[in-house]
Amino acid sequence: MKNYELTLLFHxxxxxxxxxxxxxxxxxxxxxxxxxxxxxxDSKKHLAYPIKGQDFAVYxxxxxxxxxxxxxxxxxxxxxxxxxxxxxxxxxxxxxxKYEAKQAARKPHGEDSDNEDQQ
Length: 119
Fold this sequence. Notes:
By secondary structure, this protein is α+β, with helices and mostly antiparallel strands. The protein contains three helices and four strands; from the N terminus they run E-H-E-E-H-E-H.
């Protein structure tokens, strides 16, 4: 299983009822043998340029673990999904994950000592 970051731009009209669209994406990930490790709704934002005639989109971010053949299958489905204006799926660099885990382990100690120094 590889780690991937999946960013989706949903149609702005779905902002009030995003549940069916996100459920569809979650089912797609699980159907292809994947597991969601992180999910973030980044809300509705203005686009730098219009996509499919839309100036706004609802940004949604997932961190997922997928088998090797799953991304290609998912991309073919996401390409024809009406709710999705655009998507981007990239592999996560394993070195980055190790670095972030190392930084997270150090951070509580560093924050405490910084706060003590400032007082």
